[in-house]
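Morning!

This is the sequence you dropped in the shared folder:
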Amino acid sequence: MPDRTTTVLLTTEGTYPFHTGGVSTWCHHLTRGLRDIDFRILAIVSNPFPQLQYELAPNVIDVIKVPQWGLLQPAEYSQHQLTSAVLAKRWNTTPKVISARFKPLFERLLGLVFSSERDKEELGRTLLELQGYFQHYDYEKTMNSHDAWHVVQHAARATWECRPAGTEHPTFQEIKQAYRLLYHFLMVLHFPIPFVDITHASAASFCGVPCVLAKLAHGTPYLLTEHGVYLREQYLNLRRQIKSFFVRWFLYRVVEAIVELNYHFADSISPVCAFNARWEKYLGVSERRIKVIFNGVDPKRFYPREKLPRVRPLVSTVGLIYPLKGQRDLIEAAALLKERFNNLEIRFYGTANDEQYYTNCVRRISELQLENCVVFAGPTQEPWNVFSQADVVAFASISEGFPYAMIEAMLSGAAIVATDVGGVREALGNAGVLVPAKSPQQMAEALAFLLENQEERERLGQMAQARALHLFTEEHFLRCYEQAYGELLSPMTEQSIQQT
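The structure's back. Tokens below.
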């Protein structure tokens, strides 16, 4: 690493430092562990006033919040601009300026988004030009103009080669919904591009756009870490959240364009597991740019503790209460186990990240009469005790990257049953029991097997701890990222990238 302090722009979306979860844990370990590096955090957040959930390390020198929701006029939150500058931008944003300077860029952007053969270089340059435009002209006034609306209407109804049947004749309300969502997604372009030595995105998502723009504007090296497969997760989320087929298709194209943009411009990609790398290769990333870096946990915090006496057998799980974490399937498994273990207790630890999903889970518990069996215990400040005291730890995720909670449970010597998704198999190996996702019956059978076999629980717990100590320590994790940063700053980096 160079003698002077290196500055890294770490970008996040809906996670650190304002929300807990696996990605936030990764960010916290990274910033606190690499003390000789200064970090600036650029966090895309859901509203302008989120509350910190972490005590930031002294080397986190700045936190830039980019709210996507909770406001229509990002200038209200332009802490990087004087009020006089904000007012001047509004006065300067005339219909003539919008028509002459913005409209051609916006048309080009949507043309690239809906093109069947997207030019990623041109897409990046177009976003950079739009970002430059919004440094001089008002976002809200521009995006709410007649010209902007007409561009979206034309794109929504145009004949695109990629257009599936059923999206050709969207209603006014459907176009309006798609336009409203695009309005908020593009707010990241309102903010200036920070000048740093390296940019590091925690997802191939909109939080990676500033990294792409920094590379185009300043030649800043860009490292991309993928925890889950963002594109796959958005397919699942949008299918659940958006009823209109047209709006889903519209957003799929936008998300696909952003993912491809991140993959194209990232100098190095460090997925947290090989499962993610398979998706990246499928989507066109050369193998030479991919280097898996597993998550790591501190074994001084997570290790086996003596179990306290307990009458009821206990299954615990830790994770955000969220559809992709599969708590509903574990509730269904609990119903199948109830008669076989009439005093069984299943505890869910974690924050309700999706209130509707949480409400549905609670309703299902009532329908199945599991109130005395299934407990939502809320977030925990001592996950090591949760893992050590449970007879079995269960993970029922539908989609996953390389979950921190699983590594923590392994280091704690837990007997684990988990769904075989994402990087879970890479983490657990043969030191636990794997079952298919969305299969409550097989989850119940695996839990029953371990609950009835103490010797097997102890054997798997010992194997899990040994595997995690060998492969998934925080020390190794930090050393890998320090090396990755050093390689990006090496004089040979640009040459090797061009060869790739």
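Headline: Confidence is low (pLDDT under 50) at residues 494-500.

More detail when I'm at my desk.
O.
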